[in-house]
Amino acid sequence: MIALIDYGMGNLRSLINAFDYLGHEALITCDPAAIEDAQRVVLPGVGAFGNAMAAIRARNLEKVLDRQANEHRKPILGICLGMQLFAKSSSEHGMHEGLGWIDAEVRRLEVNPPLKIPHVGWNDLQFPEDDWLFDGIRPTEANFYFVHSFHMVCNNPADLLATTDYGGPITAVVRARNLVAAQFHPEKSQDNGLQLIENWVNWTPPC
Amino acid sequence: MLKKRIIPKFLIRDRRLVKGLRFHENFREAGNPVSTAKVYDSYGVDELLFVDIDATPGKRLVDGSIIERVSEEVFMPFTVGGGIRNLRQIADLLRSGADKVSINTAAIENPGFIREAASRFGNQCIVVSIDYQRDADGKQRVVSHCGTESTPRAPLEWALRMQDAHAGEIMLCSIDRDGTMDGYDLDLIAEAAQRLDVPLIASSGAGTLQHCREAFAAGADAITISSMFLFTDHSPIKVRSYLATNGVSVRSQKGSHS
After folding, report:
1. Does B25 touch chain A (CB under 8 A)?
2. pLDDT of residue B62
3. In angstroms, rounded to a whole number, what is the distance separating the alpha carbons of residues B30 and A33?
4. Is B151 helix (H, G, I), strand (E, B) or coil?
5. What's the CATH code of the domain at A121?
6. Which of A30, A195, B179, B234 is most buried by a 10 A CB count?
7. What's the pTM value of the predicted model, to 2 decimals?
8. B252–A185: do the CB atoms touch at under 8 Å?
9. ipTM value of the model?
10. For residue B4, what is the DSSP state?
11. Chain centroid offset of residue B92 CA
12. CA-to-CA distance for B149 and A52, rounded, in angstroms?
């Protein structure tokens, strides 16, 4: 079973619909016991970083999530704001501490006209072609749906798996140990997104 | 490179799709929202926009069950508008599967609402939709309540003010052009694109492939298309291929198979 973490911020219905469509059992939950039972965890999120961390703490989820990530080493997928929460900190509306799973900071995108903020729409991914996460995704058609104003800046280049270009390369996918996270919305990226979710479900992280 | 977006716009009335002329005349039946969404998903359009046109005048919210059904059928972004007046309604719509909400009348009645909504849900969630019309003295003015109540505001000033209130995107809808298929309001699009720092969605007037190209050339980040898709033989695939041939950066996908 896959636990989709409900902390009150995120388009959970679309996410569970995607897992249903692909035939994988998923549950929207904030119950620590259910999260402990799950084989996999997805951390979605839409909104502001500080509110999200506050919501996670208000539901006493920080320790539970931390245990899944660092003790049980379950595969965890972060999406959009959920991805950014993997970072150590964010400067969105003041400084906020994140889950700290990835050595990275979240900063506001800085672009020049005519580029606009938020970065909204379909953008191409630059990714390593032989990587399992992108199996079945054609590099020439690898566009995914982004909608964000802040982005993750990795301190360890090895964590950065894929980028997209928006006034320069910005972080699109990070991966470290049992953690995978995408800035775009795979559940909203039509066939490419569903393929990426399927690839993630079929992945067993190295012990 | 970020792609220019093509967004079919669906008007919902009594749970069915309709399309009229200049907001109030000549409404025509245009199908079932859920099955139509699925068809457009297979065309690989970039987003969908649903507006319940009876919601604000009827003082109720867009029907959430339709939104839930759509999100079960298509795995692409969509925006929902119609009668949104408070944060709880936004939360409900997002929970039903919408990615963004489009707010119009409530922003005019209470500009602080946009700031609140953006701070709660993130700027990227909040699209401010601006309907405008030329009044008797020839000036363009913002209109609320689905085109029924006029205001003294100029559309561009209002757009800038909504940007300051942290709207994530601005959508400009010319009532005079709605349903006419005579082309977008290029002058205002060009000026707004120049002055706004947030993405601009051009709405109302598309009738030909050339119109779509002109709107992007004027600086729109996205265009909505309604009558042209419903009542002509121009499909999203045709629009995209025409735009790509003419140097507009659009998605190359053939469409979705989900």
Report:
1. no
2. 74
3. 48
4. coil
5. 3.40.50.880
6. B179
7. 0.94
8. no
9. 0.91
10. P
11. 20
12. 38
